[in-house]
Amino acid sequence: MDAIIGIDIGTTHMKAQLFDENGVVLGSRKEDTPLDPDGYGNVYRPERVWKIVRSQMESLLECRDIHVAGISITGMAEAGLIVDRRTGKERTAILPWFDGRTARLAGGMTEEREKEVFSKTGLRNSYKYGIYKFLWLLEETKMEKDDAVWLSMCDYIAWKLTGRLVTEPGFAARTYVYDIGRKRWDAGRIQEYGLNLSNFPEVVPSGSVVGTYLSADGRKIPVAIAGHDHICAAFALLHQEEEGICDSAGTSETYVGRLRLPVPGGCTGGSLKISMDTGLLYGPYVDGGYFFMANVPSSGHSVEWFRTKLQLSGLSYENMNQGLETLEMQPTGLLYFPFLTGMGSPLYEASARGTLIGLHEEMDGWTVLKGMMEGIQYQSAWLMEILRKEHGIQDSRILCAGGSVHNHVMMQLKADILKKNVIVPDMPEATLCGAAALFLQKNRGKEAAERFLQACLNKRETYMPDPERSEAYQRIWKERYLPMVDILVKLCKKGDVQNV
């Protein structure tokens, strides 16, 4: 029997799972992703990361009566480091995607220039992207540029496994110097930064074999880079849904789906037309074509903030869910704006602040928490409306994965407020499943991937919207929530409030 190892290098955890060809989990390993201070913030030390990955893989490979057909790598985007092409050594720590030390380098771009770059990259300017991390690390180390190569976190793991300096289109795109329409590095923009094409890895198709790993027991195992974790999860969840929407609902909440082409209006990048005015992000899908992406950065984070910081003592998940389920399933009347870490889609306003409106003395903590969860879905409803208007996407179903799917009240609120069926497949690790399934599809054919995903996709839980509640929520969203967003953003931009 063939098996696949999926590796997921996440912000919080590093995971590895051994699957058989029918999608059955044969073994699983999980450890915290180690962060260390470096004087500017926190970083990932490459030697520690590699040690954990190798240990997890070798532990899974102890099951020697199974033929391991491949290793497929997924994980966080933007995080990365510099390796030395000449010496074959790591030259820097791995900067996390959320590290803000690069803000200075990302500043100063005009709106006109940002729109021009967006037409090629599908991304709005941000300090998070790889090019700014690369420039900061070059400045800090003073190393010779000719020897420096930028690798994302997952590219680094592939390099350690195979010795090849490669990446896939999704990770290349998150450097902010990759032309997604023409499917190549943007040589002109790279030269503007004083760099050249040799400073970046070769781009190969997502899920294709890039080399082999020689295991401790002498086996040669093919290795592939599957791609960005959110996109791998979408590949798994939407495998039977050509025009579906995937909701990766964790600390942040990310909506992903395949993009219908051609896109009306916008600027041209190769064969792709996209516009920054939609408030969405775009990129290369792991199975070809392109994806749209919209996110609520402080979705699950808002619930965690309430659970761990707003309470006088920590609230367990079990007690939280039990308390929520005692409430009537009717609108609370509260308006929560989930901008604890700024607003993501569609305005990308870092100065926005989390806000709660409508409190009165008869409300208890459970009502406030439910009101916060309603606000998260009001923000999501705004994103769904943009998808409908800009791209004609009005699928009646959303497929969900991530930690929030265990919160049954949250899932029912999502169904009621978005007026869509919310489907939760039996896929606890959608990202790892997607990475493994992509490897099978690229190297064994589509039928192998379908067989792998079939069992977990067919077994699912469905939350259906209640028509009466949906209408009540729609009125609140249109008449109260949306008008207040504009007011709050303007206040924060003016600096009139520090904490609204």
Largest sheet report: 7 strands, mixed
Distance between the termini: 58 Å
Tell me, briefly, the overall form: globular
Helix content: 25-40%
Which whole number gives the mean pLDDT? 91
Key attributes of the depicted protein:
500 residues; alpha+beta; 6-stranded mixed beta sheet; 15 helices; 26 strands; disordered C terminus
Fold and architecture overview:
Keywords: Kinase, Transferase. The chain has 500 residues and is of the alpha+beta class. The protein is built from 15 helices and 26 strands. A 7-stranded mixed β-sheet has the order 20-21-17-16-24-25-26, with helices on both faces. A 6-stranded mixed β-sheet has the order 3-2-1-6-15-14, with helices on both faces. α9 (299-310) runs antiparallel to α11, α12 packs across α15 (467-494) and α13 packs antiparallel against α14 (446-458). The longest helix is centred in the C-terminal third of the chain and has 28 residues, at 467-494. The protein is globular, with a radius of gyration of 22 Å. It starts with a strand and ends in a 6-residue tail after the last helix. Mean pLDDT is 91; it is low at 264-269 and 496-500.
